[in-house]
Design a protein that fits this description.
homotetramer; alpha+beta; 9-stranded mixed β-sheet; about 35% helix
Chain lengths: ~210, ~210, ~210, ~210
């Protein structure tokens, strides 16, 4: 298991890089990594922090109830969603980005639906996907300010799509994860690339068809 | 209250970052922060300076009439607009950016109208907005080279939209503000993100509908 | 008058920055500054050099016939065009960039025509333009591999548009200039910004109308 | 002939720059350079490595059968395609990038077809192209996970298009090459620029016509 020092340093570096790409403007975006599983301890960005110049000191440790057990400040309001993803998937790291393209793509999908992405080589960047002849269903979950409810909705969507590598909150962004931070980072890049490709491809085809 | 040294250093850093994002090409963009309120003293970028490589020495201090009381060079021609925003809102910092997307979005709005932005999680990056179920009205003010008139028009628009967090000058850019520089910077990022999303979303929906 | 050392250092810095913006991919782009006027000596990028990592040693000095009088390598093939611009405008610096947006915009204009840009505040970044209520005519010159002819065509276009601050070579890029490098750099940024705005604005309005 | 140390350092630098441009998200992209021709030895990125922060130690040497003869890890799965390109073209360096625009452009071409690019000055950045009045045919090869087959298909496409400077794998990216790394890098930039121009130009003209 990685140490708090290692994980908080890596999360801060990654957070600065995602900010530089324009995927976490304002104080959007929040990132976590599992520090231990028994008991569950998650290193997570604190609430309301600017991701520009993110530092290891902006991270704290929460327990499985989302209560801070180490570090200054309040944990991200979406901590419960991170915990839900860890619970549902066994992930070692969870990243939530908020890009222009993931926002646009999430808007068009029908309620309870998903965005379907198929046929692209980039899909092979997703864990255990071995061919471009793969169809990734990215569930779209309705946005809410009730984070307990959001966590339940996210867990339900993941239960309905056990093969998913990420999900979209409508008008709110991407959640993706991985066994470790390196895999979760790769998944962010794969999805953000594909979201832009799919959005531009639909626009070129003459419309915003909303996804499957 | 922060010192001149602190504010001029922070304004210069921020100005370089906004330049790097492409939001202040040429010599566009100007930035200010309140140094004291009684009497009112504003630290502001000097006129005509390239924002690439902006330095603390490019800042000067003006009084409530916009007259330079410290520093070399002429204050930004739009100093009176900054003062108008401070007067109308009590802001501690005012940022004016000039991006491709804010220019495009400002063009379509009817005279005396506003751009309406609703339903996006990113709106929560605006001060005191607690839910994505918020409708932000961004007033659009006609552009003019008569800055005294612009300042009056801006104050009138803010009086008509006391809840606004920013406004657009048609074909000229965004004015936003905050209690302090950190909040004003966050507002720039939130608005620039949303302007791109709204513009692309309208284009995908098949037209430039001009806003409400 | 600035020294060779100063101008070559500034040209190299500027060249690296324009490369980073994506405005001089491959070995496209070439940049010059006047070292002396009597006799005319121009510091200019050498031919075929990658603008990524451009160094002062990549510059040489040419005389008014375009013959290298100092430095290693061959002068840019477009040296004669730079000389034509200096001759026609009295410029102290000439910058030629090759961006996606300037390429796209140049394509739609009719032969012998120009791209018209009006109403934007950013126009005030052009020398002696004091209001957004300005109409900039950017002449579009046909591309050719006969650089002597290109230079004559450019001089003819500038003679027909003495107020122009820049011109487009069709499918080939922007030429702009200024009294000095700082002004020429500002003109590049102003034009590249406006080209993107105009292109996107036309696309949003439903077509590629080609300009006036 | 350049040394392993030199080539691995240059490949790593180049890989980091291509990552920064967004042309090799996730673990996509792979790069090689010929270390010797008799016997054929290729320096190539190892499989599955993140191109962000690519290091010389991420390179290994393969023989003409694609077997690693030096370095840690497995060679890129596409090594056989690199070898096929070297075999067909005599290239000294082969670069495979995976951008949004190359993905989009590859999608529209008919099976067995090519993307035609003509009339742009940027084409002169391709080796031995001396005029913008050049038509570049970029063959589009169907994607497959059978890399032996892909290598044969690539060699067949290059045999049918001996003048080609690059080719597209459908939904998978660009392969281009050069006598040396500098030329191959220039070709990447030229193609990525042109792919964006052609895609945007088609979109502005009102559709995704799919290429010739």
């Amino acid at each position: 298991m990685a140490s708090f020092e290692h994980l908080s340093t890596r999360l801060a570096e990654l957070g600065r890089a995602l900010y530089d790409r324009g995927w976490a403007m304002g104080t959007s975006g929040n990132y976590s990594a599992v520090l231990s599983t028994e008991p569950l301890r998650l290193v997570i960005t604190r609430s309301g922090v600017d991701k520009d110049g993110l530092l290891p000191g902006d991270m704290l440790v929460v327990d499985e109830a989302g209560k801070a057990v180490m570090g200054a400040g309040k944990p991200s309001a979406e901590t419960v969603v991170h915990l839900g993803v860890v619970h549902a998937t066994g992930a070692g790291a969870v990243l939530h980005t908020h890009s222009v393209w993931n926002t646009l793509l999430s808007e068009g999908a029908p309620e309870g639906g998903s965005v379907e992405i198929a046929g692209y080589e980039m899909l092979k960047g997703l864990r255990d996907v071995a061919t471009h002849e793969h169809t990734e269903q990215v569930p779209v979950v309705e946005n809410t300010q009730d984070y307990e409810r959001m966590a339940r909705d996210v867990e339900a969507a993941l239960s309905a799509h056990p093969e998913a590598h990420g999900l979209l909150l409508r008008g709110h962004g991407l959640y993706t994860w991985g066994r470790d931070l390196a895999e979760a980072k790769r998944h962010v890049e794969v999805f953000e690339f594909l979201f832009e490709v799919v959005s531009r491809s639909r626009a070129a085809a003459g419309g915003h068809d909303g996804g499957g």
